[in-house]
């Protein structure tokens, strides 16, 4: 059971911040060496006692069952120290130490563009996001989104409408079959895997849809993408968090203009006012 990924899987499950895991890896070089440190050695490196206790006292008695599930469902874990960690993700601040990947791993290294937006999408937003996603996918571009209801769902569907490009869903939960969130997108989750897409999360299997997970997920959506498209977003939409991450990461932002009387377009229209690129037709991307 103690294969090359055993220690990485174990460390990924310890309930400490991603920032602390990055610091640990930078100092000690590998998960195995981290887990072999004494309490005094970790405290001397400046880590808080409660963090050190979690590192040393976590006891995952179900590790064999956990790893067996990963093997059965072809779930991979990639560390930021490995050569196959996506280069584009390596370039962002607070990069995820680990990503769990299910499906076609090659999509992570492709030409990727994110499409995100409101969960409370209008018919206009659903139609536009699906149309844009398909047109981009028809050009061999992979569509990245968050598997949420609304714009995300229709972005994934648009990519699936194409026979060329694929879609990548970045989750705010684990990526096992029993924790798809929202549950109404379970069939979409299954279709993405069946049709050559990819499911990604930095959260270990069994992770619940905690509220703070989704802003963290958004930095990976933009991080995996060369450009980010916002189709609809209210003035307080979580999609605007993705925009903030994308700007910090130096990504190009595109916004689809919307009806000035629609609350779902307040955020996107404001982005245009602030200088985001306008997206009227697919050629505007290129």
Describe this structure in words.
There is one protein chain. This protein has 286 residues and is an alpha/beta fold. It folds into two domains: 1-64, no CATH class; 105-285, Rossmann fold. The chain has 13 helices and nine strands. The protein has helices spanning 6-13, 18-28, 31-35, 39-44, 49-57, 63-72, 87-90, 123-137, 151-161, 186-194, 213-223, 239-248, 266-273; strands at residues 75-79, 98-103, 112-116, 142-145, 167-170, 198-201, 227-230, 252-255, 277-278. A nine-stranded mixed sheet has the order 1-2-6-5-4-3-7-8-9, with helices on both faces. The N and C termini lie far apart (48 Å). The mean pLDDT is 95.
Summarize this, please?
The protein is an alpha/beta fold.
Q: Main attributes?
A:
alpha/beta, globular, Rossmann fold, 9-stranded mixed sheet, 286 residues
């Amino acid at each position: 059971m103690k294969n090359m990924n055993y220690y990485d899987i174990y460390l990924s499950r310890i309930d400490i911040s991603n920032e602390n895991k990055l610091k640990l890896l930078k100092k000690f070089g590998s998960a195995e060496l981290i887990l072999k440190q004494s309490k005094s050695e970790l405290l001397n490196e400046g880590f808080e006692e409660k963090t050190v206790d979690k590192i040393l006292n976590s006891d995952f008695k179900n590790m064999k069952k956990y790893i067996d599930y990963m093997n059965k469902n072809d779930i991979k874990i990639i560390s930021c120290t490995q050569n196959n960690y996506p280069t584009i993700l390596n370039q962002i601040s607070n990069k995820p130490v680990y990503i769990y990947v299910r499906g076609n791993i090659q999509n992570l290294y492709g030409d990727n563009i994110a499409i995100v937006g409101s969960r409370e999408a209008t018919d206009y937003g659903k139609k536009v996001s699906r149309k844009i996603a398909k047109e981009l996918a028809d050009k061999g571009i992979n569509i990245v989104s968050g598997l949420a209801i609304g714009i995300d769902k229709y972005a994934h569907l648009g990519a699936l409408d194409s026979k060329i490009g694929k879609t990548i869903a970045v989750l705010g939960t684990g990526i096992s079959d029993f924790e798809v969130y929202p549950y109404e997108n379970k069939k979409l989750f299954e279709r993405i895997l069946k049709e050559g897409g990819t499911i990604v999360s930095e959260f270990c299997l069994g992770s619940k849809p905690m509220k703070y997970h989704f802003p963290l997920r958004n930095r990976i959506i933009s991080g995996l993408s060369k450009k980010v498209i916002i189709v609809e977003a209210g003035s307080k939409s979580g999609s605007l968090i993705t925009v903030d991450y994308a700007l910090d990461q130096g990504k190009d932002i595109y916004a689809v203009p919307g009806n000035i009387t629609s609350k779902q377009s307040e955020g996107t229209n404001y982005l245009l006012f602030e200088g985001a690129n306008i997206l009227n037709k697919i050629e505007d991307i290129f």
